[in-house]
Amino acid sequence: MDPMNLPFTKGHGTENDFVLIPDLDGELDLTPAQVALLGDRRAGIGGDGVIRIVRTARAAEEADIAALADEAEWFMDYRNADGSLAQMCGNGTRVFATRLRREGLVGESFAIATRAGLRRIRFEGDDVVTHMGHWRFVDEAKAQSQGFDSPVHVDEAEDITEPYSALSLDPGNPHTVVALPENVNLNGIRLRRPPAVNPVPPEGSNVEFVRVLGPGRISMRVHERGVGETRSCGTGVCAAAIGTAFWSGDVDATGEMTVEVPGGTLRVRLLPGREVELAGPAVLVADGTTTLV
After folding, report:
1. Does residue 89 have an active-site annotation?
2. How do residues 81-108 score in pLDDT, each as one tens digit?
3. What is the pTM of this model?
4. Which of 108, 119, 185, 267 is the most buried (most CB within 10 A)?
5. Catalytic residue among 89, 132, 238, 259
6. Does the fold of domain 136-273 match that of domain 4-134+281-292?
7. Does the active-site annotation cover 233?
């Protein structure tokens, strides 16, 4: 294969970082190995994910995506750092939108297409707000009857070997949320290996570990499928806020929750009808060209 010169932008949302590849007319067909190289922090550019920017109508390999072209001009083709496909990425939507606006390709409010459907975005001051759409329980009957639906085992500094009780949620991609017991230090958990979720989700799962800090405020760490621990996860922040509201006794609660992650602070708005919005910053840090084989 002949090498090609590939322009890119590097950006992050609360230090959840991405390599953005402009492919406006859908001429690229990046292989999983090429995506993994772009995301490699030693051999490539480095990022938690790779986002191809392409016109929705030209996303030929995604027939159901192309059908969204009348409502969203741009498709966020999101890949995990290991090259695998993902439905979408909450923090990535804000970085994607910021790159589009910088290039004059969108206005202050618009929709984008993702594998999880349309996501509506608007700019509010220094923040970018993504309407993340409808969320759902993976097993609502079990969640409602027991409060949890999945045990999760993870190595942690306190040498506790019993699995944690967790809740499976889908705010656009699969998540498993753990409410940490009071005797476990959030910062002491070791997330060098993927937490073991039982039963194993068919498409894998991001796993969030949550500590309540006070009314309307939580902190969180996350292990992302196909990536490892990241500094932030937008859909994970939403899942953590939803799980916290559920455990507080009101699954259909509305209002705003502040979520602290290692990379910064995000705001989650719980909306009627089990919908959710995510608000936070997005930063474009560099532009360049790389040679890809």
Report:
1. yes
2. 999 999 999 999 999 999 999 999 999 9
3. 0.93
4. 119
5. 89
6. yes
7. yes
